[in-house]
Amino acid sequence: MLKIWGRTNSTNVKKALWAAEEVGVPYENIPAGGAHGIVADPEYRAKNPNGLVPTLEDRDLVLWESNTIVRYLAAQYGQSTLYLADAAARAKAERWMDWATSTLANPFRDVFWNVVRLAPDKQDQNAKEKGIETCSNLFGIVDAALAEQPYLSGETLGVGDIPVGCFTYAWLEMPIERPDHPHLAAWYARLKQRASYQKAVMIPLT
Ligand SMILES: N[C@@H](CCC(=O)N[C@@H](CS)C(=O)NCC(=O)O)C(=O)O
Fold it and tell me: 162 in a domain, yes or no?
């Protein structure tokens, strides 16, 4: 059976788990990373030399990089669900995947760690405030895109919604002040109705 290695509270692991749920492929999740360890073991490093999660194993194929895993699951198992056959439509959707990693992830991490993960005496309020300001602007870009179409992938949910959808859950559920983004909120309400999103993404923030 297909294996997804990685602790379920990781945003990057959630992407892979949510995609697997959406395409309906049976899989086994093996907790790894954080308190579970494993990622420094030589056997794991042979699969993923970065010592990070997630890692996917599908028969002889071993893959790391969460967005690549989402793309693979969509192409291999999600032709009628997540995958977009039209190259232009797919590229427009996939840019949100790269944007999530290259632009959103770092300021998001500054907020998430200083609100959720770090003990109060270790929190950096300055980094948190700057992160909230940057993320507010970035989620404003998502909001504007969602004013034009119901999903970041177009008319239906696709690969382009997965990474930003995982970050959005934490962004909207963290106890912080944030601007009102009505189109983002409407999209999030649609995501929350999906059993796959509930199972893979909507777990307590830790
Ligand atoms: N670019 C990589 C980043 C992977 C990454 O940074 N994973 C984090 C969790 S979100 C990790 O493995 N941290 C170490 C750990 O959990 O032990 C991806 O998208 O898969």
Answer: yes
